[in-house]
């Protein structure tokens, strides 16, 4: 899995729609991050950054998606950004580096009946198949590395996740929930606060 940096720079990543969620129009193939923050309370104009070195495949504008990027990364990975109000792009530019400013968040998604407000749609594909980009984010990987005896697993790439602890499986709804569960476990929140269906004995955790 690639290591991806934060597409919102140093801002907190708040998920408004997880990977694999089913909508009336189909399955959500990426992760949505809220773009509202103290500096940009409307959610419009938040700087968006390149999460990995890559080569530009396409940049386009859509009535429903606003400005969009498609980048080719290494090892068969591709990265997509949707819902930008403006882009930092000059004709002839092809390669972009991790951390490069590539645009600014838009506001049109908030007017769509399928969304709740301005956000960045962040999508990762491997050999043409969508994969959960949360698993590639450095924040996630650094956290996982700090938690001893845990493993983070996507079962058959179907959006079902479980955590393995001391040989027992604990199922979660999705990768985002599994990550939150790991955070809760590491900060001493009680088992009663954790919403998941255990295959092992959760009371022994």
How would you portray this structure in words?
The chain has 205 residues and is mainly beta. It folds into 2 domains: 15-137, Glucose Permease (Domain IIA), CATH 2.70.70; 147-204, no CATH class. The chain has helices spanning 138-146, 175-186; strands spanning 15-17, 22-23, 26-27, 31-34, 47-49, 54-62, 66-72, 77-87, 95-96, 101-105, 119-126, 129-131, 150-155, 160-165, 168-172, 197-198. Strands 1, 4, 5, 6, 7, 8, 9, 10, 11 and 12 form a 10-stranded antiparallel beta sheet that branches.
Task: Provide keyphrases for this structure.
205 residues, mainly beta, Glucose Permease (Domain IIA), 10-stranded antiparallel β-sheet, 2 helices, 10% helix, disordered C terminus
Write the layout of secondary structure elements.
Elements: E1 15-17, E2 22-23, E3 26-27, E4 31-34, E5 47-49, E6 54-62, E7 66-72, E8 77-87, E9 95-96, E10 101-105, E11 119-126, E12 129-131, H1 138-146, E13 150-155, E14 160-165, E15 168-172, H2 175-186, E16 197-198
Antiparallel strand pairs: 1-4, 2-3, 4-11, 5-10, 6-7, 6-9, 7-8, 8-10, 8-11, 11-12, 13-14, 14-15, 15-16
